[in-house]
Amino acid sequence: MFLLNSNSDYRRPLDPRDAEILGLEAAAAVERHLAFRENHAETPLLALPGLAAELGVGSIHMKDEGHRLGLGSFKALGGAYAVIRLVLDEATNRLGRAIDISELHSSHVRNTAETMTVACATDGNHGRSVAQGAQLVGARAAIFVHSGVSDERVAAIARFGAEIIRVDGTYDDSVRQAARIAEEKGWTIVSDTSWPGYERIPGLVMQGYTALVREALRAMPQQPTHVFVQAGVGGIAAAVAGHMAIAFGDRRPTFIVVDPARAACLFETARAGHPVTVAHGEPTVMAMLECYEPSLIAWRILSRVADAFMTVDEDNAISVMRRLADPAGNDPAIVAGESGGVGLAGLISAVGNPEIKKALSLHGQSRIFLVNTEGATDPGKYREIVGLSPAAVAAKARTGASQ
């Protein structure tokens, strides 16, 4: 399914709150924060000229977040950043002076963190980031996981010392239960989705994602003309689209939001013109995108700066995982999890449909930017789908890079 943005807010300026969250000054602050993270390194921006020639576009660049901060997902940038910011803010309030990120490992920051419990619901990746951030500063973490989260992903969260709380139902059920229990116990919810009255913390999570955009734009030889980014509740799509709208103004790229057809909450929200909850049906293989209700902040941003919304099917996502693992020509092999390459799946579907291709003005000079949002965060599932282990594909990528 494909839909051009026809909402009344389309092309209006960003809400001032969102412009502040995703602006250049905020993004610079995120990068300064990362400089104090011991295992931080910029993730690679990979050129895919073979695939670009095959699809009939000028260039394709993919930011590979499978290497981010040891967590294998772009979400490493969001949850942990929000936790650290909240702890620094609380320490500032208690000590009566501004506490800088350079004091992250000080005793007064740790003493503050030890009195705090952060909580969230997760499909896997966000919970891991929140748990990592809590461990880093010495706070307690309680992570709510729904029945669709694999045991391997749960174990990856628990390794950071988080308490795991199981919830029957969907991701959205776990969000509601996390909010209810956190309120009862006085815990701080660090959610990557927002609802009425709860915006600041999801805004900090999204702010963390701007780092990957800054890194990518510095590395790209030219500004992209088109950006395809996958969406669950919409946080990563809104962060990329919003920051690029601020950075480029009227020259911003054409931005396309890509949803799983089985959990198309942003597509249906765009069609309705207001936030909607879609029915829960058969689960999608794109597990990290299996969300049935959009983030209100994300929709407020995307209603203004997304140009189109589309969906992809299960086979599209699986095909892209295999295609990136066994690339065209001399392109590097890329380990992309079930949700990682969905933006590329959207691009392939778009160029394969003459009407969509024309509507988006895709042609031989188009410069495409994509984000591989996750590596193999469930290695067993990855091997089952691709037929190779993540390690085997990564070895192939290293061999190609050395040639």
Automatic annotation (TrEMBL):
Gene3D superfamilies in alphabetical order: 3.40.50.1100
Listed SUPFAM superfamilies: Tryptophan synthase beta subunit-like PLP-dependent enzymes
Name listed for the protein in its UniProt record: Diaminopropionate ammonia-lyase
Cofactors required: pyridoxal 5'-phosphate
Cited Pfam families: PALP (PF00291)
Entry keyword set: Pyridoxal phosphate
Transmembrane segments: none
Occurrences of domain Tryptophan synthase beta chain-like PALP (ranges): 40-372
